């Protein structure tokens, strides 16, 4: 097969079509599970991995000002909110947003004293393996496909990379000197963290210091359990493995821009997914420009903006970086409502940012990177929106309708709605003191992040 063929097959088989219901019916293909029941609370996945009690465990300071690493880990992946609904398991919400509240990421720290897993609820490090070769303390981000596929089936592979990008936008904002890598030896990084490459696999690395990332396995790491009975989704396994390789660590991604806030911790704890926006409210042009400049300047993929309610900016469709001259002037609210699968946020937001890509130009590894890039944009839009006093939410979309909207034969990656909230959400809590919140019943009205 040609490099990228598996990614294109995966994308086609997980694309939503005009007229689909939610959850969309499974595609008729041997790699697609036909018997998966989405949102089945009898098979509710673990919210994070579990390890044997006899592994060394180190509590991290709850005062985040005492330890930069503890602060970085908690504000990237720590539990900041909880929700309890009748006859359902408790739901844990982490500091960075996640599609459908699934939080399918695990975070590891490889440093001089060994490889550690970050416990997002206890705010602790568990040593799972010996020290690895290399110089720089390195974060390893992995994805657990079953945890998101429980809701989104095979489409959950996209969500792994969107969620990783969303979280890494916060990580890189908190540690501006850190270096993000997406080219590395997949098999070695999988061994490093004790993953199996099917139910859990590495998505990205972040080096926190100078020198080579500390990722050469120094021995065997404990495996832990991603779930009591995780299901493999063969299409996701195929898509991930098609992009795997024994890569030498490549060049880091461009440095993250500076977020528009002096109090990043406060912004992250206030950040959430805004589920209702005021269609009658507008955003100032200066704030619109500031948010897009911060979010999109480093982006490697095309991005379009549907403007509904920005002061002194004509409603219509724009393509970054020209955010003042519309490609298509006019009111697009109803069109975006349909494109966003009749979810009100597509219509009520002040503007909607839509990531896109030339699918035919991507190899299998590049496809993963394009999805991660879209997640980084979403994460930066969330930070910018909350820093500027607005709200934001990731959004699902009907893939088949997207080319007609933008006027090009492009594949959609990820949408983010930015607007004025119709309510004020509770800020998240600190380590060990998550805020209790009420969330809507899961269904089509629950946005992607």
TrEMBL record:
CDD domains referenced in this protein's UniProt entry, alphabetically: McbC_SagB-like_oxidoreductase
GO molecular function: oxidoreductase activity
SUPFAM superfamilies in the record: FMN-dependent nitroreductase-like
InterPro entries, alphabetized: Bacteriocin_Proc_Enz, Nitroreductase-like
Protein name in the entry: SagB-type dehydrogenase family enzyme
Organism: Solirubrobacter pauli
